[in-house]
Amino acid sequence: MTEDDDPVFKALADPTRRALLDRLLIRDGQSLTDLESQTQMSRFGVAKHLKVLEEAGIVVTHRQGREKLHFLNPIPIQLLYDRWIDKYTRQRATALADLKTALERTTMTATNPDAAGTTQVFRIHIKATPQAIWEAITTPEWTARYGYHIPATYELHPGGRYIAHANEGMKAMGTPDVVSDGEVTEAQPPHRLVQTFKMHFEDSQTAEPYTTLTWQIEAIDEHVSRLTVIHDVAGAPIHAALLSGDQLEGAGGGWPFILSDLKTLLETSTALSAGQP
Fold first, then answer.
1. Which among 24, 49, 74, 115 counts the fewest CB atoms within 10 Å?
2. CA 29 → CA 35, 209, 211, 227, 241, distances in Å?
3. pTM of the full predicted structure?
């Protein structure tokens, strides 16, 4: 076990904290008051457990107006999976986990039809400078090396175009040439990028409105930076489902996979996957 894993295992070891994560899985983006109202604990007790989850990176906060909302960030758990489960029992564990998830989600959907939120927040710490992360996000030479291996180009000024083209494997499967596009609304290299975003793999995705995607990069020290991705998917339920990381079939893992792969590439010079259609 590495030191980076310790806070995550500690956070997941407590049943009360797992219960809070379950509540955020059912409805993401809840305030402290919302979460307190669903437990028998005091406000201080809930806040204390949330602090442990935040320190482990499993919960991240984002202000919307005057409210401080809490979001489930699955990336640290994804990294644990990549480091431990994947290399030992991936096929067997995935089959059992998929069965368990399918059974639980069926019940959850039936009792919570409004479970899907309109904002998704993901955060990850990377041993790289903000400039290195910025270049990995905004240049086609880098975007073709991680995630879905799609070369993407940006015109880095307000009103500039964002466009991502299918790779050769995708084209061989009949995927449209332009798989996602949008417009840059704010660019502050190497710390902040705001853009609109829409996928075009299928007509149902093209029919949805453009979503808003915000990238925030902060230097923690001279070696480590924190990358936060905030995705407003209001009015775009297909995008929300595909990019949340909950739907693996036909989606490949969404933002948790993309950001985990980005971290792995920048820290080891090798992506999680050599390439995928």
1. 115
2. 10, 22, 17, 19, 16
3. 0.71
